[in-house]
Amino acid sequence: MSQVETIYLKDYKAPQFLIKTCDLVFELFEDYTQVTNMMKITKEDKSAKDLVLDCADLELLDIYLDDAKLPQSRYIIEKESLKVLDVGDEFKVILINKIYPHLNSELEGLYKSGNIFCTQNEPEGFRRITPYLDRPDVMAVFKTTLVADKERYPILLSNGNRESNFKLDDGRHGITWFDPHPKPSYLFALVAGDLGVIEDKYITKSKKYVRLYIYTDKGNESKCKHAMKSLKDAMKWDEDVYGREYDLSLYNIVAVDSFNMGAMENKGLNIFNSAYVLADEDSATDANYMGIQSVIAHEYFHNWTGNRITCRDWFQLTLKEGLTVFRDQCFSADMNSKEVQRIEDVKALRERQFVEDASPTAHPIQPDSYMAINNFYTATVYEKGAEVIRMIHTLIGEKKYRAGMDLYFETFDGQAVRTNDFLWAMSKAGGVDLELFKRWYHQSRTPKLKVDESFEDGEFRVTLTQIVPNAVDVTTQSAYYYPLKIALLDKSGEEILEKVLIISKESEEFIFKAKSKPILSINRDFSAPIIIEHKESNYAFLMKHDKNSFVKYESAQSFALETIEALMRGEGLDKEYVVAYGHILEDELDLSYKALLLELPSVSSIMQRAEVIDFEIIYEAKEKLQKHLASTYKDKLLEIYRQNHKPESKELDAKSIGQRSLKNRSLKLLSSLQSDEIATLANEQYNNSLTMTDRIIALDILEDISDALSASALDNFYNRYKKDALVMQKYFSILASSHRVGTLDRVMALQNDDAYNELIPNFVRSLIGVFARNYKYFHAKDGLGYKFIADKIIDIDKINPQMASGLAGAFKIYEKLNEKNKNVMKIELQRVLKEHSLSKNVYEIISKILKV
Ligand code: BES
Ligand code: ZN
User: Fold this and answer.
1) Nearest CA among 723, 670, 730, 725 for reference residue 701
2) CA-based, 20 to 30 A from 80: which of 425, 491, 521, 851?
3) Pairing relationship of beta strands 33-43 and 17-28 according to DSSP bridges
4) How far is the C-alpha of 174 from the C-alpha of 180, rounded, in Å?
């Protein structure tokens, strides 16, 4: 496998040819599809002789150059290219080829999800449909005609506007679509099926009428309402906050069950994983509702940040993804609670991105090489990328940020550009020099900042020293430039001052005048994605007094982490922490926010701070703390539970969501007592509550603490929802994350369950993917968890490499494991690597983990 080719950014060359227009005809049949592709092409580099098109498994039927059929001597078909020899400066090519969507299990290009034909072309799927210059800097105007059996496929969709339709004698029909906006091939989409639909409209600020449609399997129409509402909210928000209107008179969204990712922003025809469209009170959790809102918005926002202005090459991916994630985060913050949103975003960043950045697969938000581009849709490119945009926002402020965005749109609309072009606009409108800041795009790993403080003669000195980590193979990374929001508090918790410090040197001292020694509140709002090392931090004080909702939360987390670490070292339990926790229980706070403050650090966050990871020790310490808190505050926790438990409510307003979140946090904490009393409460909640949020948490608790009650509740749940794939995925996840004895065997057996389907990524993620994050059993010292996941990677790689390399991500923790775990994991990783015909996707991840 070592001959897998590495692609480098430094090798980028401008396209020698451009495609002006692309007219496609798809004749869809059950066992094959015939594609006719007519392109008008111009030669940009006059020294070029041959046209080299990207392709994959090409079955070419015919090829014409300027209407003349080409003899075999004029073209060469290779594994990944079609070379047309000796072409002129301006010409027309017609290609006719055959593809097999029903056999396409990789879910890239044209494939079938159930009875629906659909596409996924980002980043390089289009070449599986027809030979093309399949790169984002080649933008063409597309016209698409779909022809299919009218009864089976009454709905035929593609990008842009519907232009015409026709009927054939044999029961087939055709529809032609035209998209006036030039676009790269990765934004091309088509859908054919017998779908249900809901319809709505949106009138833009400049009074343009936009028809909105969401298509789904028949019977699910009523579950699309929340997605539709979210779409309209997103359209309005982009007008209000960015001054951007939608630019077609039609916006289509299609929900499909088989999808590798969450959703895709194809121009005018978004295709979504049904998990991010379908919801009703009976089947979706509060978290599902939030997820739908943010993914719908994300794909909508891409229309400007991604589609109108796209990436020059895939190394620039964060140009559209980091920016669009930042936009969807701000949207969700505006629609819901700002403070909760920020904490959730930081939590997600640390759970996924910090772990990645600490592993051998660490990379900058703009990588300079890759083997499989599909592997680079990472938490780093997305979430850290969004943090980098947020830092620019903090550095220059909202007004100049908006001016920078306006300048960016004005200057680059309709083009395929680089992150540097974005930074040029921000720097110009922001009036700042961003040269040093650019290091965030090219350096990897999470920077640290060491904080030392002293107080003397009315001067508070804060010395900030950057600890710049080495990259995977490079030792020459330099100090970062970033905004650090701080405040000084007096003894009563009042703010003496709040300030954004600009950090740019390796070490710098900041001096503040103060009457007595102030208390430092640092990295407010998580203004920079760094790790703070601060010995003199006053966690208890900040937990109680800090008005910055993030630092208050952060202090609670850090204090808990230190308390757990002391337990891990065999020391006693810090009473001061227990008291501080008690204060939070009494605090009058927004309920969702309070639920977050009461949450104990995740196993992953404990792991990240450990030099060497031993799960049993981590678990034991966390359990001990949890039990202690639960027994100390049992009455208060029960009171909170009773006050906020409203089983008959299924409202989705902020208060109801907050109540569910808080009382479920209480119940979960109480469940560590493993008592019959709590099991009974959970069981009643399972039986009486009207929301999925309540049922899922009750099931999860019962699974952990009561054999008898969980058996009957799980049985009830299964029978009630066995026909609902999205709910069954929750069921599989509960069992895969269980701590009960025999979980591995149960997970293995569930693969044969009637409700399970290995060809649908959502099921694999919910069962196998969740098991691979079950620290207790995935990391079991006998190595059986590792062996199981390794086997699954090998199996699934043959079906869908992208899904397999996703599972391989669970091994990224390898380096930091204790010897015992490391040795058993190594055997499995080496075994996977020896597989012949391993995909480059899996090869890249595992070879990097093992550093071979
Ligand atoms: N452009 C991506 C989708 C994509 C990329 C699908 C590559 C398949 C291969 C889309 O905009 C996206 O980022 N989707 C995210 C969800 C989003 C809310 C972060 C996803 O699918 O996970
Ligand atoms: Zn995206």
Assistant:
1) 670
2) 851
3) antiparallel
4) 20
Confidence of residue 472 (pLDDT cuts 50, 70, 90): confident
Per-residue model confidence as pLDDT tens digits over 42-99: 999 999 999 999 999 999 999 999 999 999 999 999 999 999 999 999 999 999 999 9
CA–centroid distance for 833 within its chain: 27
Residue nearest to atom 3 of ligand 1 (CA): 264
| Token digits of residue 686 | 């399972």
Q: Quick check: is 651 catalytic?
A: no
Please tell me whether residue 531 adopts helix, strand or coil conformation: strand
- For residues 144 and 190, the answer to whether their CB atoms sit within 8 Å is yes
pLDDT in tens, 1-27: 557 999 999 999 999 999 999 999 999
What residue ranges line ligand 1, CB within 6 angstroms? 120, 122-123, 260-265, 294-295, 298-299, 302, 321, 325, 377, 382
Using an 8 Å Cβ cutoff, are 683 and 695 in contact?
A: no
User: Among 316, 313, 327, which Cα is nearest to 365's?
Assistant: 316
CB 99 within 8 A of CB 32: yes
Residues 420/313, Cβ–Cβ less than 8 Å: no
Which atom of ligand 1 lies closest to the CA of 263? Answer: 21
pLDDT for residue 2: 57
% of the chain at pLDDT higher than 70:
100
DSSP 8-state symbol, 164: E
Pairing of strands 195-203, 60-65: unpaired
Distance from C-alpha of 142 to C-alpha of 134, rounded to nearest angstrom: 14
Compute the distance from residue 324 Cα to the ligand 2 centre, in Å.
Answer: 6
The mean predicted confidence, pLDDT, of the chain is: 97
Strands 310-311 and 17-28, bridge-based pairing: unpaired
pLDDT tens for residues 702-720? 999 999 999 999 999 999 9
What size, in residues, is the chain?
852
- Angle 310-313-319 from CA coordinates, rounded to 5°: 50
Contact 496, 517 (CB under 8 A): no
